[in-house]
């Protein structure tokens, strides 16, 4: 069990994104929110915009993104986010996005995610959940490293928020079969592996980039009913219902779910401290890899924060994207 002094904030599981941002002025802050055309991403982008940030909605469906931007603009008195297309499973669109970005960046929120009901692959043959949830965000963040470093020079540091999940507790990283080429495919295990990867990214990004003023933290937003569940099979839905019944999570509102991302993005406690996993607006305690999820729903497993695993995943991810 973790015996370190964990980072604490004044916020709780019921805090909303707007409450975190109360009295905070983000004028001049340039932010990117991926997956900002639905669910958690919309609320995260809306709250940041309302606080004065210049937000870019990085979305696959720009028609949906434009509708969200219009709604946000009306709710914030005319401040309308930009909308730019990106498909995290398509390396060409990630490259175009990065090449088109020509200004300092102060906040990157890697929020987008996909859940599949069965095995799907990208054109490279990569398993889709790992490719989208981890590799796409990895390519985006590394491609924007220079912009983040420029942003850090502007504002005494920049931050990356990597949205993970309690699901990470179901699986570490299987380096011998990342893309389920030999083992039987289990969508929940594939999703779990991608969420562990999201946390490990924050660990290694902070180690490599903190000297540039960039820190990254992973967050678990909690149980939220969003479009992420639209592709669930009956088995996945039954598993989710069982987890709720066992007390693994209690559903939050979208406003409450976005709060932990916003804490990682703006709270002074995490301004220069990265490589952490946040749950309910606090740094989570670490549990052994064999810990039971139902007994530790607000913990983080060792495999999601292990520095050696994080370094190995970074190397593997870099090599995959070179092919």
Keywords for this entry:
alpha/beta; 323 residues; two-stranded parallel sheet; globular
Summarize the structure.
The chain is an alpha/beta fold.
Give a written overview of the molecule.
The protein is built from ten helices and ten strands. It has 323 residues and is of the alpha/beta class. The mean pLDDT is 93. α2 (39-50) runs parallel beside α3 (62-75). The protein is globular, with a radius of gyration of 18 Å. The strands form two sheets. It has an eight-stranded mixed β-sheet, sandwiched between helices. β1, α2 (39-50) and β2 (54-59) form a beta-alpha-beta unit.
Category by helix and strand content: alpha/beta
The side-by-side strand order for the widest beta sheet comes to 3-2-1-4-5-6-7-8
Extract low-pLDDT stretches: none
How many beta-strand runs? 10
Order of helices and strands: HEHEHEHEHHEHEHHEEEEH
Treating each run of at least 4 consecutive H or I residues as one helix, how many helices? 10
What is the C-alpha radius of gyration, as a whole number of Å? 18 Å
How would you describe the shape? globular
Percent strand equals 5-15%
**Biggest beta sheet attributes:** 8 strands, mixed
**Average pLDDT taken over every residue:** 93
The helix fraction, in percent, is 40-55%
Amino-to-carboxy terminus distance: 40 Å
């Amino acid at each position: 069990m973790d015996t370190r002094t964990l980072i604490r904030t004044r916020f709780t599981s019921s805090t909303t994104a707007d409450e975190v941002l109360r009295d905070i002025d983000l004028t001049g802050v340039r932010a990117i929110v991926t997956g900002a055309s639905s669910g958690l991403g919309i609320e995260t982008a809306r709250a940041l915009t309302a606080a004065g940030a210049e937000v870019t909605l990085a979305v696959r469906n720009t028609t949906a993104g434009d509708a969200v931007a219009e709604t946000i603009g009306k709710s914030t008195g005319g401040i309308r986010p930009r909308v730019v297309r990106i498909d995290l499973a398509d390396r060409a669109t990630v490259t175009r996005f990065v090449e088109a970005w020509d200004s300092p960046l102060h906040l990157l929120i890697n929020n987008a995610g996909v859940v599949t009901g069965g095995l799907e692959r990208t054109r490279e043959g990569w398993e889709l959940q790992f490719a989208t949830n981890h590799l796409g965000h990895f390519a985006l963040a590394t491609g924007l490293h220079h912009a983040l470093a420029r942003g850090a020079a502007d504002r005494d540091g920049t931050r990356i928020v990597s949205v993970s999940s309690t699901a990470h507790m179901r699986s570490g990283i299987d380096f011998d079969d990342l893309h389920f080429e030999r083992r039987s495919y289990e969508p929940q295990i594939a999703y779990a592996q991608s969420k562990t990867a999201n946390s490990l990214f924050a660990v290694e990004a902070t180690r490599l980039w903190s000297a540039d003023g960039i820190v990254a933290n992973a967050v678990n937003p909690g149980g939220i009913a969003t479009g992420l569940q639209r592709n669930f099979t009956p088995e996945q839905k039954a598993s989710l219902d069982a987890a709720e019944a066992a007390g693994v999570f209690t559903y939050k509102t979208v406003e409450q779910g976005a709060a932990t991302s916003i804490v990682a993005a703006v709270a002074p406690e995490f301004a220069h401290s990265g490589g952490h996993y946040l749950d309910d607006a606090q740094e989570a305690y670490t549990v052994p890899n064999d810990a039971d999820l139902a007994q530790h729903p607000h913990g983080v497993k060792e495999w999601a924060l292990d520095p050696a695993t994080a370094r190995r995943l970074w190397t593997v991810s870099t090599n995959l994207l070179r092919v």
